[in-house]
Design goal:
single chain, alpha/beta, Rossmann fold, eight-stranded mixed beta sheet
Length: about 280
């Protein structure tokens, strides 16, 4: 699988990538169309008409790059030709992004991974005002990564995910199989909350360029989805330490996980991270 490297600063305290881009460069789109095959046109009933006809047309938005379809202003999805009906759904969470940045490179990597894995990929956008660790990034699009912001913002964000997923199921004409979440940098920190605390049910989570130092173990979910954690060997020491700390805590709890330290890499995500995460997830029955 071809890979695409990332660039950008390391993690800010309690947050993630504070660079002005999507955190990646290079990459190539996967084969297949980003259109919602079998039900992307307005007026399609999205699956035998259950619940009534769904009047829908793709939303034109710069947030969705080539091969991705706009479900709304904040949500893109990609359906590769390799994804069968009832395929798993994979949420991909970006790092902190400046208001004028677009996630073209990360979406290219995610589309490639979706084609290789046969999954439907979803790319939601974070919200401004959630990068609370530094006033200089307050206007960036981010995911909540501190206890107070997670408690305040996560319920509404996750409800939007579930509403989007239900809408997509009607558009594509069937329900999804398993649900996974993969986050880079700031998105990885939020993915850890989602998986560890069961904020929404997932069958596996991936954190790249992220980890956790402060972990409220009493909030752990009864469900234990396998977790993939990856950092670059050239990351900031604090980022590597947070990944190692999370792995240590998971080990103490007997929680299935895989920690990978990529030699020679910095703060970045590549296509092979998706493949390695998938192997971690499917290894658990």
């Amino acid at each position: 699988m071809a890979s695409s490297s990332a660039s950008g600063r390391g993690d800010a305290p309690g947050g993630g990538d504070a660079s002005g881009a999507d955190g990646v460069s290079g990459g190539r789109d996967a084969g297949g169309s980003g259109d919602a095959s079998g039900g992307g046109d307005a007026g399609d009933d999205g699956g035998g008409g259950e619940g009534g006809a769904l009047s829908w047309a793709p939303v034109e938005t710069d947030w969705c790059s080539a091969r991705w379809t706009g479900l709304d202003e904040h949500t893109c999805f990609h359906v590769p030709e390799t994804a069968p009906r009832g395929a798993p759904i994979l949420y991909v969470l970006h790092g902190a992004m400046a208001p004028d940045a677009l996630p073209v490179a990360l979406q290219a990597i995610a589309a490639e991974a979706a084609a290789a894995l046969g999954v439907v990929a979803v790319f939601p956008r974070g919200r401004p005002g959630l990068c609370t660790w530094d006033p200089s990034v307050e206007a960036h699009f981010c995911w909540p990564t501190r206890r107070e912001t997670v408690d305040a913002a996560a319920p509404a964000l996750l409800q939007e995910w579930m509403s989007a997923e239900a809408r997509m199921a009607r558009i594509l004409g069937g329900t999804f199989g398993r649900r996974y979440v993969m986050g880079f940098s700031n998105g990885g920190y939020f993915a850890s909350y989602v998986a560890l605390e069961g904020l929404v049910a997932v069958d596996g989570a991936g954190l790249v360029g992220a980890g956790r130092m402060v972990i409220e173990e009493h909030l752990f979910s009864q469900e234990r989805p396998p977790i993939y954690i990856a950092v670059g060997g050239e990351e900031l020491a604090s980022t590597v330490a947070s990944a190692e700390n999370l792995a240590d805590v998971l080990t103490q709890h007997g929680w299935e996980h895989e920690l990978v330290v990529h030699p020679g890499r910095g703060h970045e995500i590549r296509a092979d991270d998706f493949a390695l995460a998938w192997n971690t997830w499917v290894a658990v029955p």
